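ok, trying the design again with the full structure, not the truncated one.
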C-alpha cells in the first residue's frame, strides 16, 4: 500500500499546548469530566476515613465483620446494579446526558447519607451513590478519550484515573480535620459526607459547556456538528477544512464503517465475537482483576486493620498516615500519567509488577516478624514498605487501567467493553471488601502470602500479553488487534484525505451528511489534487520502518 504524502504528524500542533487557544480551552473544559475520578476517589475512600472517627464508630455501634464489609461494599453493589444500563445510555443518549444523570442520582444519595439515622439508611445511601456514580464513570472517560487533542489523549486519559487521589486526599484530610475540630460530635462524620456533593454540583452546572464526543456525533449521523467541534478545539484556524480535521474525520468515519461491516448489530456478545475482540477482553478483564487483587485493597479499604496489625492504634496517627499516603499516591500516579508517552504502556506495566512483587514480599516479612516475635523495628519499617508498594502500583495501574482499556476498544464496543471492565472491578472490589476483613481476622499475616503468589501470576501475564500502543491515533490503536492491515488502512485513509485537503479551498460547512455518505467521498479526487512529493513521502516511509522497531513513537509524539 503506497504511503500518503501527508500524515497526522504534519498537522498536529507543535510546542507547549497552553500556547494553542483551542487546546487550552478544551483542556480546561475537560476538567469537568475529569472531576468524575476525584468524585469516585472521595466516595470510595470515605468509609475508610470514617472508620477512624470515634463519633462515627459510636453512632453506628462499632460495626465490624460482615456489617463493616457490607458498609464498604454497598457502593460497589449499587454500581453493579447500574452497570447494565450505563453503556446503552452512553451509546444512545450521549456521553454528556449520561454524566448529567449520574450526577443527579449521586446528589440524592449524598442527601440521604448525610442525614442517615441508622446503619440501614447509611448503607442504602451508599448504594444509591454507587448507582449514580457508575453512570458518570462510564461516560466521563469516554468523553475525554474521544474529545482530547491527539497528542494530549494519552496524558489526559491517564490523568483521569490518577486524579482519583484528589478525592481520596480530600476524604482523608477532611476526616482528619473533622476529628480535630469536632471531636466526638456527629458533625465530625456528617460534614465529610456533605463534601461529597461538591463535585456532582459542579458537573450538573457545567457539563453542557463541554462539547459532545465527535465519535458519538458521527455515529449518529451528525457529522457537521462533529467537524465543527473538532475545528473549534483541534484546529489552529477554526476551519473545518484544516488538514488535521479532515484527517481525523476520515479516520473516524472509516473506522465506524469497518466496525459496522464487521458487526451489523452490537450487543454484549459482540465483545467476544471475533478473535481480536476476545484478545481485547482477555486483557481488559485481567487488568481489571489485577487492579484490585494486587494487595492494594488491604490498605485502600482497611487501613485501620492493617495499621493495628503492626501496633499503630492512635486515631490521630492513623489519620495522618492515611492522609500522607493519599498525597504520595497522587504524586506517583501523576508521574505515571506523564510517562505513558515517554516509556510506553507495556514498559510501565512491567516495572510496576516487578516492583510490587519485590516490595510486597518485604512488607509480608515485616508484618510476620511483628506478629510472631513482636519486633518493634519490623513494625516501623512496614510503613515505608506500604508507601513504596503504592508507588509501583500507582505508576501503571492507577493511570493506565482506564486509558489502556479505552485505547484498545473500537468505538462500536467501547462503552460496553468499558462497562464490563467496571463490572469486573466492582465484583473484585466486592469480593475484597467481604473477604479481606474476614481473612485478616482468621489468617493474620499469612493472608499476605496469597497476594505474593498472585503477584507472580500477574507479572507473567503482563510480560506475555500486553502490547505497546503509544504513538498511534485512537482509531489506529483500536485496530491493532484486528490484523496488521487495519492500522495501515486507517493511516492511509487519513493521509489521503489530508493530502486531498491541501489543494481544496477552505471554508466552513463542508461536512454535510447528505453529501458525505462513505469515506471514499473524501479521497476520491486525490489524483486530481496537487501533491507534495519527495520530502514527506520519504519521511512517511522512514516512519513505517521506525514503527517496526518502536522508534517512531518517540519521534512523532514525545517531541510535541
Amino acid at each position: 500500500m503506497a504511503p500518503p504524502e501527508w500524515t497526522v504528524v504534519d498537522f498536529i500542533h507543535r510546542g507547549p499546548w497552553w500556547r494553542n487557544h483551542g487546546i487550552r480551552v478544551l483542556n480546561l473544559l475537560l476538567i469537568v469530566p475529569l472531576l468524575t475520578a476525584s468524585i469516585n476517589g472521595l466516595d470510595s475512600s470515605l468509609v475508610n476515613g470514617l472508620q477512624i472517627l470515634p463519633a462515627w464508630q459510636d453512632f453506628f455501634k462499632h460495626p465490624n465483620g460482615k456489617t463493616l464489609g457490607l458498609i464498604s461494599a454497598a457502593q460497589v453493589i449499587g454500581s453493579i446494579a447500574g452497570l447494565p444500563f450505563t453503556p446503552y445510555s452512553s451509546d444512545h443518549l450521549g456521553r454528556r446526558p449520561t454524566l448529567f444523570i449520574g450526577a443527579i442520582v449521586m446528589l440524592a444519595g449524598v442527601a440521604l447519607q448525610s442525614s442517615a439515622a441508622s446503619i440501614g439508611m447509611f448503607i442504602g445511601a451508599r448504594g444509591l451513590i454507587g448507582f449514580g456514580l457508575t453512570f458518570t464513570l462510564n461516560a466521563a472517560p469516554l468523553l475525554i478519550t474521544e474529545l482530547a487533542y491527539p497528542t494530549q489523549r494519552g496524558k489526559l486519559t491517564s490523568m483521569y484515573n490518577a486524579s482519583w487521589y484528589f478525592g481520596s486526599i480530600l476524604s482523608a484530610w477532611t476526616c482528619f480535620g473533622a476529628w480535630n475540630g469536632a471531636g466526638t460530635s456527629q458533625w465530625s462524620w456528617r460534614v465529610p459526607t456533605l463534601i461529597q456533593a461538591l463535585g456532582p454540583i459542579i458537573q450538573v452546572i457545567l457539563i453542557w459547556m463541554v462539547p459532545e464526543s465527535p465519535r458519538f456525533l458521527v455515529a449518529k449521523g451528525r457529522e457537521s456538528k462533529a467537524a465543527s467541534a473538532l475545528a473549534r478545539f483541534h484546529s489552529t484556524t477554526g476551519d473545518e477544512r484544516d488538514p488535521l480535521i479532515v484527517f481525523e474525520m476520515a479516520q473516524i468515519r472509516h473506522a465506524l464503517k469497518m466496525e459496522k461491516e464487521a458487526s451489523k448489530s452490537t450487543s454484549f456478545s459482540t465483545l467476544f465475537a471475533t478473535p481480536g475482540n476476545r484478545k481485547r477482553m482477555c486483557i481488559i478483564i485481567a487488568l481489571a482483576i489485577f487492579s484490585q487483587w494486587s494487595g492494594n485493597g488491604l490498605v485502600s479499604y482497611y487501613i485501620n486493620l492493617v495499621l493495628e496489625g503492626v501496633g499503630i492504634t492512635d486515631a490521630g496517627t492513623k489519620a495522618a498516615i492515611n492522609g500522607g499516603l493519599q498525597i504520595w499516591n497522587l504524586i506517583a500516579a501523576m508521574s505515571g500519567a506523564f510517562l505513558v508517552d515517554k516509556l510506553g504502556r507495556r514498559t510501565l506495566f512491567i516495572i510496576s509488577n516487578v516492583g510490587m512483587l519485590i516490595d510486597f514480599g518485604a512488607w509480608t516479612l515485616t508484618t510476620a516478624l511483628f506478629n510472631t516475635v513482636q519486633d518493634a523495628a519490623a513494625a516501623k519499617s512496614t510503613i515505608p514498605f506500604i508507601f513504596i508498594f503504592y508507588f509501583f502500583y500507582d505508576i501503571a495501574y492507577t493511570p493506565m487501567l482506564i486509558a489502556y482499556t479505552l485505547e484498545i476498544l473500537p468505538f462500536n464496543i467501547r462503552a460496553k467493553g468499558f462497562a464490563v471492565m467496571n463490572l469486573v472491578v466492582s465484583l473484585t472490589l466486592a469480593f475484597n471488601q467481604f473477604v479481606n476483613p474476614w481473612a485478616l481476622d482468621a489468617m493474620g499475616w499469612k493472608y499476605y502470602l496469597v497476594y505474593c503468589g498472585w503477584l507472580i501470576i500477574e507479572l507473567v501475564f503482563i510480560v506475555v500479553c500486553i502490547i505497546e500502543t503509544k504513538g498511534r491515533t485512537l482509531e489506529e490503536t483500536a485496530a491493532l488487534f484486528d490484523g496488521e492491515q487495519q492500522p495501515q488502512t486507517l493511516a492511509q485513509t487519513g493521509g489521503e484525505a489530508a493530502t486531498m485537503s491541501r489543494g481544496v479551498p477552505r471554508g466552513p460547512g463542508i461536512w454535510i451528511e447528505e453529501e458525505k455518505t462513505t469515506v471514499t467521498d473524501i479521497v476520491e479526487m486525490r489524483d486530481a489534487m496537487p501533491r507534495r512529493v519527495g520530502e514527506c513521502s520519504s519521511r512517511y516511509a522512514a516512519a513505517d520502518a521506525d514503527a517496526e522497531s518502536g522508534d517512531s513513537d518517540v519521534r512523532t509524539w514525545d517531541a510535541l
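Keeping the full-length input from now on. Confidence is low (pLDDT under 50) at residues 504-560.
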